[in-house]
Request: fold
Amino acid sequence: MSPELYPVLSISIGVMMLAASVAALFVKKLLSAIIMVGFVSLSASVLFLLMDATDVAITEASIGAVISTMIFLWGRGKIGGDG
Reply:
C-alpha cells in the first residue's frame, strides 16, 4: 500500500469510529449498541496496525473487540431480552 494512502485511511477509519460511537449512544436496541462498541474496538485495532504497533493491535482486538463484547453479550443475556 502506498504511503500517501495512510492518512486518508486513518482519517476515514477515525470518522467511522466516531460515527459508530455516537450511534451507540442513541440506538434503541441494546444488541445494536453492543455490536457498535465492538466495531469501535475493532477499528481501533486496525488503526494500531496501521501505526505499526502490532502488539497493541493484537491486544486491542483480542481484549477490546472480543472479550469485552462477549462480556457485554453475557450481561445482556443475564438481564434478559433487550432491557
